[in-house]
Amino acid sequence: MVSFEERPNRFHPRHEEDAILLSAAWARLAGGGFEARVVGRELLDRWSEPHRRYHTLSHLWDTLRAVDILQEEASDVDAVRYALWFHDAVYEGHPGEDEEQSAWLAERLLDPLGVGPAMISEVVRLVLLTKDHRPEEGDRDGGVVCDADLAVLGSARDEYLAYVTAIRAEYREIPEREFRCGRLAVLRSLLERPSLFNTEFGRERWEPRARANISAEVDRLSGRRTGGLW
What we know:
Elements: H1 16-30, H2 34-47, H3 57-70, H4 77-86, H5 97-110, H6 117-129, H7 140-150, H8 157-170, H9 176-191, H10 200-221
Helix pairs in contact: 1-2, 1-3, 3-4, 3-7, 4-6, 4-7, 5-6, 9-10
């Protein structure tokens, strides 16, 4: 079996094509003024930090592309896009704390752009939802943010494998046994949910593949599978 360190992975820390596309996407969202350019540069630099393996420019770009698919299900698609730009802008491998720091960063950086207080509060709320991806029923924007962030779960086998490889690499300092226990707990909690996705599109198009991917990973980590997906 090929180890996770040896597997090819497109979620590397700096993807120049993604950086170009993201720069243009940020300008469309925030405008082309000086402050917007400064904030955009800071965000791209944060998403390009060398310790990242999955939470990179590629992940950010993928979430924004998912919003393009889900945008009709959002109430305020600009708030959703701002939230995704900030949702992992702080990433140090500390679940919960990272999301809180990312929300605080959004509050600090959006104000100089002239974004109104109501929009900033909504972006902060949406960023914090990515702690557990459990928006309340009827929260359309929260549902889109969470589904865009988790869309990778419903990707094709090779894409899911790249995601799994990158997540393991981000926690490379954690011993294998400890990582497996923690990862299994997360995956099993996901499978226990009535639905992984909140939007109609997510439930119809991503849910079946996501459950198959997660189940295959659980089997492998539990020692019940030696081939198949991995």
